[in-house]
Each structure stands twice: as C-alpha cells, then as structure tokens.
Design brief:
heterotrimer; A alpha/beta; B mainly alpha; C mainly alpha; A: alpha/beta; six-stranded mixed beta sheet; 16 helices; 21 strands; C: mainly alpha; globular
C-alpha cells in the first residue's frame, strides 16, 4: 500500500487550469522524483498535499485512508513535511524560535528553555547552528537544513522538497542528495521536485512526470536515461541549444571599477558594444545588489560606474515586484519610463498623454514581440512569458546601447525562453552591449561570449577555454579563491 | 471593470449605509423615516436649503479631490481639515492684518493664493516628515489637524481677534476680499464655479498625464516605479502638496466666499468627511462631485433632522462612517507602508 | 521632602500616563501580530462613554471598567470584521471606525443626557494614595504581562511570527487569522479600559470627542518605545509628565496663550515621530493582509 496517494487532482486558478488530472503515489523508503517543466503544476500538486492549496476535485489517501487536508496543521499532523522553494522561515526570529514555531509543548517557554530545546533538536539532526543566531544571518544551505530539521522534528514521514538544489552550489547539492538517501534508508518517503535530470538519475527510485497539469508518466526510474526523461518532460525532442552570438566587440560601453556597496566587495567589469558578458553564480552572491546598482536604486559606497554609451536599459529579475506595475495596463507599463523622464513625444505632449500615439506604441510592441494581450489589459492578467516579453519590449523601447538582463528566463516555458534568448542575441548582433546576470548555468553557457562568476560580491573571470559546467561550478563555490 | 458596476457600487454602498443607520436610529428609539424625511427637506426642501447644500459641497469637493489624488498615490492624507484651517487662517491674516484690505482688486486673488499656499505648506510638513524621517502621513496629518485647529483658536482669541474684542472671531472681510454671490442667487458664490472645472482637471491629471501615470505607478508598486526611474519620494511630496493646496484653497474660499470672517469650528470634521467623499467616489475625481453633494446634503440636512425629528445631528457621522465601511468592502484601495 | 507642587505634578503625571500606557499596550500587541489599528481613538472614546453610562447607571466603578473594556472589544470586533474578514485597508477602516465612534457616542450621549438636563457625575475609582489606584496596578500588570507573554511563551512566539511573516507561521500550523483576531480584540479591550480611565479617574464626566487624539499619541508611543513594553511605558510617563507640566503652566497663569499650550502633546508627538519613526523596525508583515486559502 502506498504511504501517500494523490489521485486525479484538478485545480483551477481563475482562467488557468493548473492541474488537470494529476496523480502521485509514494512508497515508504523511497525518493520519488516529480519532474516537469516550469508551469507544469509540480508546485501546485505538492501544495495540495501540504494543505496550502485546496483541490477542486480528486482524492488524497494517506496509508490507504482517504483524508481532507484543509491546512498545513493537518498536513503536519499527518506526517507531511515540506521544504518550500522560498524558505518559510521568519527572518527576524532566531534559529531556535523558527525551529519551535508551531511545535506543541508547554506554554511557558523562556529563552533559556527555548534554546536548550533547540540545541537538543539541532544535535539530533547533526546541525551545527547557533540556536540564538538570527535566521537571516544564515547561509542559504543552512536555512535549507533548518527547514528540513524542522520538518523532521515535527515527525514528518513524508518530506517534500520543492526545487531544493536551485539555490545550492554543486558540492552542497551532493551533500543534500546524500542526506536524502540517508533519510530514505530510514524509511522516509521523499518527493524531490527538480528539472535537473542528472540529480534525478543520481538518487531517485521512481519518477512521476507532469506535463501541463497532467501526470503523463509514473514509473520506476531504472532503465530510463536522461534523454528519455527529457522527452517525457517536454513531449517532443529537446530543442537544440543555441550558441553564443559571434560578433566582434566594439568600443567600451559600460565600465565598473572597484565597485563597493552592501553585498558587493569590489567589482571590476568592462562591457563593450556588440558583446554579451554573462555573470554566473549562486543566488545571493551579489546579483541583487548589482542589479539594484545598475537600476539606479542603490548608491555606491566606493568605486565608479561609468555609462559610456547611454542609454542603459534593465530587464529586472523580478517581473512581479520590480519589472512591472501589475495593476497598470500593458500600454501604461510600456511607457512608464518615458513618463518618469517628464514625458516627451511621441506618446506625451505637454505632459499629457496622446491616446492614439499610446495605442499605436502598444500595438507595435505587441506585434513585434508577439505578446498575447490587448493594450488595455492589466499586466497582471498576462502569463509569465507574455509579461516578460512586455518587459523586453519596454527595455528595448529606449533603443538601449547597454542592456542588463537579470535571470531573463526564470519561470518561463521553453517557447518563451527561446524567444527571450533570441531577442538578446539579436541585440548583440545589432551592436548593443549586453550584460546577462543569470543563476541558470546552461543559460550562461548558451549565451555568454565572456563569462565571469559572481562569488561573495566579487567577480571571478572564467578563461575562454574553461567554459564548461565543471569549471564554472568550481568557481561558483569559490574554489581557488583566497 | 464594467461601467455599470462601477456606477452601481457607490450607490449600493450609500443605500446600505443609510439602511444600516436606519436600524441604529430605530435602536435608540428614533423614527428613521421621519428623520430621513426631515434630513431631505433640510437639505433640498426649498431654494435656500438647496443653496446651503451646494455651498457646503464646495470644501468637501476640493478636499475630497485632494484625498482621492493622494490615495491614488498610496498616500493617506487625512489632514484635509488642518490644511483647510491653515488656508483660512492665512487668508484671514492677509486680509485683516496684512495689506489685503488695501490691495483693492488684487486682494481677493491674493487671499486665495495665500490660502492655497498655506494649505500646501501644511501638507508639505507631512510630506517632509514622511520622505525624510519615515513618519507615516496617517499619524502626522492627524496630529497636524489638532495643531491647526488650535492655531485658529489661538488666532481668533489673540492676534486676529476683531477690533471690538467681543467674540472670538476675526474682523469681517472688506467687500474687495469677498467672493461675489452668483447673480440671482442668495448664497452660492463665484468660487463654486471651480467645482465644475476642478474634477475634470484632476481627472486629466490622474488618468491622462505623465505625472498621473507616475503617481499611480508609485501608489500601486513603489518598487516597480523606482525601477522605471520614478522617484516615490518626489511623487509623494508632490501629491501631498497638491492635495494640501486644494484643501487650503477650500479654506480660503470658505472665509472669502461664505463666512466673511474666521472663527473656531469653521469646518470641523471636514477632513474625515472628505475621506468618505473620496472613497464613495471610488477615488475617481469625476465621482467626487456627486459624492461631495451627497455628504453636503447629509450635513446641511442634519440641523433640520435634529430640530424636527429630535435626532442628534452627529448621527450624520455614523452614516459617514458606514459609507466608508461599505465602500471599502467593495473597492479595496491599499495603503503603502512607509 | 517632596513639596506639594512636585507631588501634584507626579500625581497628575500618573493619571495622564495611564490611558496612554493602556492604549499603547493594546496597540503593541495588535501591531506585533501584524495588524495596524488606527481605530484605537474610536475604541477609547466608545469605552469612555460605556464606562460613563454604566458607571452613572449602576454607581459601580468596577462595572464601569468592564463596560468600557467590553465596548472597546465590540468596536475592535467591527474593525476586525472589515480588516481581517473582508481584507479592507486597515487605515481606511480605522479612520472610518474613529468617525463612527465619534458619531455613535455623540448620538447615544445626547439621547442619554439631552441638552438642558443636569450633568451627571460618574463614580470615581478610589485612590489608595494620591495618584495610586487600581488603574496604575492594571497598567503595571499589563506591561509585565505583555512583556512576559511576548518573550517567554509559545503563544507569544506564534504571535510575533504572525506579525513578522504570516505565511511562514501559517505553514507551521499557526492559525494566523485567529491570532490576529485575538490580538485586535485584546487591543480593543485595552483601548476601552483606557477610555474608562478618562471617565472614572481623570475626569468625572463624558465629553464628546474627549479622547482628543490620545489614541494617535498611543500609536506614536509604540514607535517611540521601539515595540518594547517597558520603553512604551517610559514613553507614556514622559508624555504624562509633559502634559501635566503644561496644565501646571496653564493653572499658574502662564504668559503663553492657552491654545498654544494645548498644542504641546501633539507637537511632542510629531517630534517623537520625527526622531524615532525612521529608526524603528516595525514587524515585517505589519498591515499586510493574509489569506490562508488559494
């Protein structure tokens, strides 16, 4: 009898059907891969198991008994633990407080007892953490371990990990996978959400593949190789990876010298016209501060940023928070930077909007970038891919000489990813200087003419003959750095 | 959202609020129907009543437009009352103590300009406190209300008190500093012509200008606005100053057009009523006109309600509050954390 | 030996600090749970009227206190209904609540004592010593209780987590909305009690709008105290002292006009906000709505 069985789960969010008959069955003592493209419904499916999404239809069985999981408390009581993609820790609380949050026990819990209880738990799970440390001072891998420890402390038999390796360096990935194997041998059922095929083939026993909200395969993993898994995931053959554009670099466009800011410890970078420089690195090594600096929302502490060939346009790494004003329409988002600079022709005249010109501008962008929307639709109503195309359209509207793109394909499906990457190549061929900051190693390898690695707020150059996953992976961990 | 719904929601909110107040009135032993009838006849029973209502609508309209504008930028200017008082105070100081009385034909425009400026400055304090010191404008504008009301009280007991020193009020304004009453009418003054123009101007500003796009972007997402090189600080300051200027103008119009002198309790509670006006209008400047008329009718009818139906005039505030409650449960504008 | 003037000043400081400390303690708990309650002014005012009406009707101070707290809770429930249930904006809803309270208390007060009828006096909380009575002990117990609760109990930990990151508390099985409801109702009880102290101790009657901004001063005190109970108490005492001093100046026939003296607490509050508001780290999820269900 499976420990957990999700059968024919359906869930609709507004107009989009996130799950259209998804099933998942977990055995004790196994690591189960949940595989699928971005947007295939993996996260939604496991959140129904965790009680944070209520399915429209379908059944959930635990140990053969049909259950309703109304909320996370119920899931915890049923022995289901979850390690979220974005950690569910309270940054301002201590390690001990996060560990004990929601845990039943005596009401009186003074700091001394809290820390002692936490110390016991931490040593049980072999975690060398200071219970009094504030959680936001921890490294990413430590936060992840804290989440795993917390789930196990609450008695989880089923542990769901949502893309746990996306934020880890290669050697940290190996450690995590080893831990998962150990937990499996103790009899836990583990769900590993990933779209990294080599991780799945390394540790998983079974695999369930989701495509567009539907379970398309569920089987033992042995006998399947990476390319067969890939085909199951995307349906057709994988598209051939693109190559970096080949263009002779032109004059210097952007120069960073000795840039210091919170999170940046001395960045030197030269970017030339018609050149694509890609910065790899694990999240949290300075990507955010560098983006904010180039967006002009963060001040320098020392050093200089020289824009030699303006204008500079930025494709933000967070469409929802900083890229778009979701409640404004497509056309309003498109011309917002023009409004910021006071408003000029053709869309504005004497500070007022010329409606016909605005509509024309929007129609032109929609056509050129194949955005599936009307000019007056609120940006919120667009799919992720169309939102990103809108961001690209807006960035290119100023005819930038320098384009900074941060994780430009995060969360997009394959078609949209290809479209955005092709747009970047086209810009490079047209002579724009492009700086790509991406945590997706494959993207960096596919697009970067020159590659460097962001590590602890500094740039580690990658020699042209070392553009390989292994070499860059080592640098991402800071290997060879004093 | 379709237009029928946009129009229907405020009406439903007002009706539900009136119904809920009827229940409350019945609960304290009053006859709700008699009270509402008295209120209606007091508000528009005859020409005089209707004119009174229109006169009362003026300040509510101006302050309400300012509130709607600032709320669109995610700024809660609850200080309309204080800004109005400072506008009235500055205009009075100019007219009765400055050169305003001797300035002949320019004294009226000067008084209105000074009042507008004083309202802008008073709101500017809240803007500076928010932008430079991180003080929520909700608290600062409310505190500034108390201070402005006391400043007016001090002025009419002290430096601006009338020459005869009989009452705590200023000298009456000379004719040159008064707004003319419109021909054929008894109370409706020329300043109220602004009521026909300003809602459209503010609508153009919010929805058809670069500045309006900026301020809405800031109100909806300060982070995304900043990335598009819009400065939330600058928009915040600008919006607060404009909305303070509108309230200050309302104060100057009140002394120059309606009362002809300054006294205490000139327009008490108008700041809060203006919040109700803006919310009932769903933050749409064009809707502010009918919404201001609705609340002006409540206010001007409340006296008759108290006389005829023996329901305390403060009951109107209950209706006001209920309108806000029911408006926010339909439309949900969101404030922006400091 | 303390002279009589100083003693009077101390007594009056304690009296004036009491409603501020009570209301601020309630606001602190609500804000630590992530709910910004700008409606405490209205809750205080309603509490004051309920205490007056009950006190005069029954002659019992204890019942007056209870009625004050209960009225605060009722108003808080109305606030929570809109903010927590309907997801309405807390600032607009709080403002509406203040206007509502102003109108409601006005209507009820006027129907209780119509103009022209003799002014009724509410019974007074007995003082053990000048400036010392049950209210003072309630304040001290409340400050200690809130401090211990937040720091040293499991429920306090849950409440802080809800205010800092509601989503994270939710996935650990904390009932976010229940915690917030409890915090808001507690804040309402404190505000109502604060209102009762205005009638049963500081003045012996009810006056329309008698809270005159004390609720907003309490909001500012929470910031002044950096969200810590003891510091908030210190802030309340400071404000009490400043107000007491201003009354002394008035009584002594100061050259400063009365209306300008009355500005003192508001100016002081603005000053305090200007100095402290930017430095204090508010709970990260303050005034962010939470919905458990997708």
């Amino acid at each position: 009898m499976p420990r957990v069985a999700l059968r024919d789960i359906r869930k609709r969010f507004g107009a989009t059907e996130a799950l259209r008959g998804a099933s998942l069955s977990l055995e004790p003592g196994s690591v189960h891969a949940l595989l699928g493209e971005n947007g295939a419904g993996k996260t939604t499916l496991v959140r129904t198991l965790y009680g944070s999404v209520r399915p429209d239809s379908g059944t959930i069985e635990i140990d053969g008994r049909k259950v309703q999981i109304e909320n996370p408390s119920r899931a915890l009581a049923l022995g289901i633990g979850m390690v979220h993609q974005h950690f569910m820790l309270v940054p301002a609380l201590s390690v001990a407080e996060n560990l004990l949050l929601g845990e039943p026990g005596s009401e009186w819990l003074p700091p001394r007892r809290r820390n002692a209880e936490a110390r016991t738990l931490l040593s049980r799970f072999e975690l060398a953490l200071d219970p009094e440390a504030r959680t936001d001072t921890l490294a990413v891998a430590q936060m992840q371990r804290l989440e795993i420890a917390r789930a196990l402390a609450r008695g989880a038999n089923v542990l769901v990990l949502d893309e746990p390796t996306a934020v880890l360096a290669p050697s940290e990935v190996d450690e995590l996978l080893a831990l998962l194997v150990r937990l499996r041998d103790e009899g836990k059922s583990i769900v590993l959400i990933s779209h990294k095929l080599e991780e799945i083939t390394a540790v998983c026993d079974r695999v369930t593949v989701l495509r567009a909200g539907e379970t398309v395969a569920s089987q033992r993993l042995s006998g399947l190789d990476a390319s067969q898994l890939g085909r199951l995931m995307v349906g057709d053959a994988l598209p051939p990876p693109g190559r970096p554009p080949v263009v002779e670099p032109g004059p210097l466009a952007l120069a960073l010298e000795g840039v210091h800011a919170p999170g940046l410890a001395g960045i030197d970078l030269e970017l030339r016209a018609g050149e694509l420089v890609a910065l790899a690195g694990i999240d949290g090594n300075g990507q955010g501060p560098l983006e904010e600096l180039l967006a002009g929302v963060r001040a320098l502490e020392a050093g200089s940023v020289r824009v030699l060939r303006p204008p500079l346009a930025l494709l933000s790494g967070d469409r929802h928070r900083t890229g778009l004003v979701l409640e404004l329409s497509v056309e309003e988002n498109l011309v917002l930077p023009e409004a910021a600079s006071g408003g000029g022709p053709p869309v504005f005249s004497a500070g007022l909007v010329r409606s016909a010109a605005l509509r024309d501008a929007a129609r032109e962008a929609i056509e050129r970038f194949e955005i599936k929307a009307r000019p007056e639709d609120p940006a919120r109503s667009l799919s992720g891919g169309n939102q990103q195309k809108l961001c690209v359209a807006r960035a290119l509207r100023v005819r930038p000489q320098i384009l900074v793109a941060v994780n430009p394909t995060r969360g997009l499906d394959l078609a949209a990813t290809a479209a955005v990457r092709e747009e970047l190549r086209r810009e490079v061929r047209a002579g724009t200087a492009v700086l790509l900051i991406s945590t997706e190693l494959d993207e960096v390898l596919e697009l970067g003419q020159r590659i460097a690695v962001l590590f602890r707020g500094r740039l580690l150059p990658v020699a042209p003959d070392a553009h390989t996953r292994e070499a860059i992976g080592r640098l991402m961990l800071g290997e060879g750095v004093a | 959202m379709n237009h029928a719904r946009a129009l229907a929601q405020p009406v439903v909110a007002a009706v539900v609020a009136l119904a809920a107040s009827a229940v409350l009135l019945a609960a304290i032993g009053a006859d709700p129907l008699a009270a509402f009838a008295a209120l209606a006849s007091g508000a528009f029973g005859d020409g005089v009543a209707l004119e009174n209502t229109i006169v009362r609508m003026g300040p509510l309209l101006l302050v309400g437009l300012g509130v709607a504008l600032s709320f669109r930028c995610g700024i809660w200017n609850i200080g309309g009352e204080g800004q109005l008082y400072m506008g009235a105070l500055a205009a009075t100081a100019l007219v009765t103590r400055g050169f305003g009385a001797d300035a002949g034909a320019v004294s009226l425009p000067l008084a209105l300009a000074v009042g507008t400026g004083a309202g802008a400055l008073w709101a500017g304090i809240a803007a500076a406190l928010r932008v430079r010191r991180g003080v929520s404008e909700v608290l600062s504008t409310i505190l500034l209300n108390f201070i402005a009301v006391l400043a007016v009280a001090w002025a009419v007991h002290g430096p601006l008190q009338e020459a005869t020193l009989s009452y705590p009020q200023s000298d009456a304004f000379p004719e040159a500093a008064r707004l003319a009453v419109l021909p054929g009418l008894r109370r409706v003054h020329a300043g109220l012509l602004l009521a026909a123009v300003l809602p459209i101007a503010v609508w153009l500003l919010i929805f058809r200008s670069a500045a309006g796009l900026r301020l809405r972007a800031v109100g909806l997402s300060p982070d995304a606005a900043r990335y598009a090189r819009v400065s939330p600080e600058r928009e915040t300051t600008r919006v607060l100053v404009i909305s303070g200027a509108l309230a200050g103008l309302a104060g100057a119009l009140e002394v120059c057009g309606v009362t002809g002198r300054l006294f205490e309790n000139l327009a008490s509670g108008y700041g809060f009523t203006a919040v109700a006006v803006a919310l009932l209008a769903r933050l749409n400047p064009l809707g502010v006109l009918p919404a201001a008329f609705f609340f002006a009718a409540l206010a001007s009818g409340s006296g008759a309600m108290q006389r005829v139906a023996a329901v305390p005039s403060v009951a109107v505030q209950v209706i006001e509050a209920l309108v806000i409650f029911f408006s926010v449960s339909f439309a949900l504008p969101k404030s922006r954390a400091t | 030996m303390i002279d009589a003037t100083t003693l009077l000043l101390v007594v009056s400081t304690l009296r004036l600090a009491t409603p501020l400390a009570l209301a601020a303690m309630g606001e602190l708990v609500a804000e630590r749970a992530g709910v910004l309650n700008v409606g405490i002014e209205g809750m205080m005012l309603t509490g004051a009227l309920a205490a007056f009406a009950t006190g005069t009707a029954t002659g019992s101070v204890a019942l007056g206190c209870l009625a004050g707290a209960a009225a605060g809770v009722a108003m808080a429930a109305l606030f929570a209904l809109f903010v927590l249930r309907r997801g309405a904006d807390p600032i607009v809803s709080g403002t509406a609540l203040n206007v509502f309270a102003l109108g409601l208390t006005g209507v009820v007060f006027r129907s209780l004592s119509p103009p022209g009828s003799g002014l009724e006096r509410a019974p007074q909380m007995a003082e053990l010593a000048p400036g010392l009575n049950l209210y003072v002990f309630v304040v001290l117990a409340l400050v200690a209780g809130v401090a211990l609760f937040l720091d040293r109990t499991r429920a306090g930990l849950s409440l802080r987590a809800v205010g800092e990151r509601a989503e994270a508390a939710h996935v650990q099985g904390v009932a976010v909305l229940r915690v917030r409801w409890a915090a808001v109702l507690f804040g309402g009880a404190c505000a109502g009690l604060a209102g009762s102290s205005l009638v049963l101790w500081i003045s012996d009657t009810f006056v329309e709008g008698m809270t005159s901004g004390r609720g907003f001063i309490a909001l500012a005190l929470v910031l002044f105290g950096g969200y810590r109970p003891l510091r908030i108490l210190a802030g309340a005492l400071l404000f009490g002292a400043a107000t007491a001093l201003q009354y002394r100046l008035q009584a002594a026939g100061s050259a400063i006009p009365y209306n300008l003296l009355l500005m003192t607490p508001y100016l002081l509050t603005l000053l305090v906000l200007a100095v402290f508001a930017g430095r204090v780290r508010a709970p990260a999820d303050l005034a962010r709505p939470f919905s458990a269900r997708e």
